[in-house]
Amino acid sequence: MAAISNLAGCSHGGSSVNFGERRLTFRPTPALKTRISWPSKNPLAVGHLGKGHKNSGVRMALVDEKLARSGDLPKPSDILAFDLVQGALVKWSSVTDRSLPEPPTAVFLHGILGCRKNWGTFTRRLAQEFPTWQFLLVDLRCHGDSASIKKRGPHTVSSTALDVLKLVQQLRLTPRVLVGHSFGGKVALSMAEQAAKPLARPVRVWVLDATPGKVRPGGDGEDHPEELISVLSTLPQEQISSKRDVVDVLVRKGFSKDVAQWVVTNLRPTGPLGSSQSTFSWVFDLKGISEMYRSYEETNLWKIVEDVPRGVHVNFLKAERSLHRWALEDLQRIHAAEELAAEEAAGVEMHVLEDAGHWVHADNPDGLFKILSSSFQ
């Protein structure tokens, strides 16, 4: 599917981490809990970056100054829900000793109808292998725990990227790596485009199984995200009595069982815990997601690929079994951009992930880990 994330479920409960790393979890709920006990009584007391705070000593290299001038930024939970997975050697936080050097940070973005949990297992593995790094996982607007945070439209690739830029500014992070799968890949490119001038150098952008321009969804026998969104819109949005019934409906409509089972991970129990009469409702904003997918199809970001800012390295990863999503024209333009970027002290590079379909981090996590690891050395 051209814009659907992997088969890892979008569960919303907490879970223990035993991989030698630490994780912060922020959700849009009144009672916020963290995986780390900070010295500060308020783990979100990070200050304001708006007007009248020029002497705060905070300046994010990633985000355009116009964001800081737009007024007081909201708390992180009012921007996007996120997890911060930190390697065991990371001692830094945005609310403790500012004299500590900021650790290198990577941002991971999911695809349409996905959530930040899609990247959980993969980033915990990265944190174990690269203990000096930290990894920011977000629920994009209209998805997962961020669906309850009301966002102004239009719901586009550009506005989604701006959300993430605001979040990293609020957290006082300067990402060195941006990784986006499918729709998230275009979001990562849009982040680089919107913050190209003050972007920290060097920065690596990874676009996983997505092209900068025209979206070419699956052929016969493949799952089309647009069709899936359309079918989901005909189903009840609340008071769903059975996940199995939803799976059966989707399979009868021609979607694979794997996709159907993955989609229902977006259902959250609405009844009392332990109740035999528990029902489910969708955690996402399907209307907003439909608008986001249309933007994904219409957004053209070839300009930043063919004129990459100095110090920015854009990496495209094509799944071996996703040939129908990559036209010869796409490959030729990317290879031409490789040569041009090398002359401008920037970078464009093409990678192929063997033995993988579109869901690269589910189909071949070992191969993907090997390829991405070069960015964290």
CATH superfamily of the largest domain: Alpha/Beta hydrolase fold, catalytic domain
Number of DSSP E strands? 10
Structural class: alpha/beta
The appropriate CATH architecture of the largest domain is 3-Layer(aba) Sandwich
Please write the CATH class name of the largest domain. Alpha Beta
Distance N to C terminus:
31 Å
Give the spatial strand order of the biggest sheet.
1-2-4-3-5-6-9-10
Using only C-alpha atoms, the radius of gyration works out to 20 Å
Q: Tell me the strand percentage band.
A: 5-15%
Write down the overall geometry: globular
> What is the fold-level CATH name, i.e. the topology of the largest domain?
Rossmann fold
- How would a textbook summarize the main sheet? 8 strands, mixed
Instruction: Enumerate the spans where pLDDT stays under 50 for 5 or more consecutive residues.
Output: 1-6, 13-20, 27-74
- What pattern of helices and strands is seen along the backbone? EHEEHEHEHEHHHEEHHEHEHH
- Count of helical segments? 12
Output mean pLDDT.
79
Give the % helix.
25-40%
Number of domains: 2
Say what oligomer this is.
single chain
Domain AB hydrolase-1: 107-369
Organism: Prunus persica (Peach)
Family: Belongs to the peptidase S33 family.
Pfam family, one: Abhydrolase_6
